[in-house]
Prior knowledge:
Helix 1 (4-20) packs across helix 3. The longest helix has 18 residues, at 87-104. With 215 residues, the protein is α+β, with helices and mostly antiparallel strands. It is globular, with a radius of gyration of 19 Å. It has helices spanning 4-20, 22-27, 87-104, 194-206; strands at residues 28-33, 40-46, 52-61, 66-73, 78-84, 120-123, 133-139, 143-149, 153-162, 168-177, 183-192. Strand 9 (153-162) and strand 10 (168-177) form a beta hairpin. Strands 1, 2, 3, 4, 5, 6, 7, 8, 9, 10 and 11 form an 11-stranded mixed sheet that branches.
Amino acid sequence: MSLEWFDRVSGELQDHLKSICEKYDRNGSMIVERGSKHPRIEFYTELDDNERDYFSTLFFDPYNEEFYMESFEPDLGQVSKVILSDIEDIVDAVHESFHNYLEEDDTDYEYDLDMDDDNDDLYDPDGADSDIYEIDVDWETPEVTAYIQDNEVEVTYQFGIVQETGDGVLKRINRIRTADDDLIKDETNFIFSKEEASTIIAMIASHMDSLSEME
């Protein structure tokens, strides 16, 4: 059992989709869930109220090392599995699902169409009273789920590179669903150099056994 093929596709898929489809580049996002028995990549658009509208799910069978999508067959009344053998097939399938979703969506949602949304972030080095600087970030990974509980709490991380300095950026997004069904989204960004990265990794690795699991 290996996740090497899954990790490779996860790392390349977003760039492939953005390069062939301007609408996906502006609206589409993906999130990686590695912790499941069959890891998956979920594709969605984000609405103005931070809600996600999912339009496709790509599953991975780690035992057979193959990607697949599930499709409901109304004539048969059952779910079928469509095997996707290479990354070109995967890109085509997700691209088709995205456009089918756009065609079927007859509700006038307002999406954030800012072309710079994926590349701009805010950094406040000196606290709340200081000036806020805009920096350009190349996001190297999609959002990766680190923790999820009963669709009420979700914590994701995303790694990027600051264009101007080459420093690393780790974005943490904490989404909480309240009792009133409101979604609270808390985002923090941690910027660090290459030298700091090796120290941080070593410190975490040496104390992993002392950490408690999230409850």
